[in-house]
Write a structure and sequence with these properties.
Helices cover 28% and strands 16% of the residues. With 106 residues, the chain is α+β, with helices and mostly antiparallel strands. Strands 1-2-3 form a three-stranded mixed β-sheet, with helices on one face.
């Protein structure tokens, strides 16, 4: 008889704990648009219109706004860059003639 009560008690406890667990409705396909700090993430594809254009402050601001980035910068071939990754920063890579060659976030 004590084993039956112990088994029944264990089953009851497991059922109660299973009811307390939560499930996430977020899937991997859901787009994440903000970082942990609440900043919007950069979408590099939205700024690809800059490729082939000459670097200018106006172009940088247009690209930043379209990409939804908090910050944007031009990177020349000779610029030294840190390895920090910032999901809210847009990078416009240029060649020596200041023509945008690549767009990425980070």
């Amino acid at each position: 008889m004590p084993w039956k009560l112990a088994s029944l008690g264990t089953l009851l406890a497991a059922t109660l704990l299973a009811g307390c667990s939560s499930t996430s409705t977020e899937t991997a396909a859901d787009p994440v648009t903000t970082t942990d700090a609440g900043h919007s993430r950069c979408e590099a594809k939205a700024a690809e219109f800059t490729i082939g254009k000459k670097a200018s402050p106006e172009l940088l601001e247009q690209a930043r706004a379209r990409a939804g980035a908090q910050n944007a910068r031009f990177l020349m071939p000779s610029d030294m860059v840190t390895l920090e990754y910032r999901s809210d920063r847009l990078n416009l890579n240029t060649d020596a003639g200041q023509i945008v060659t690549r767009v990425n976030c980070g």
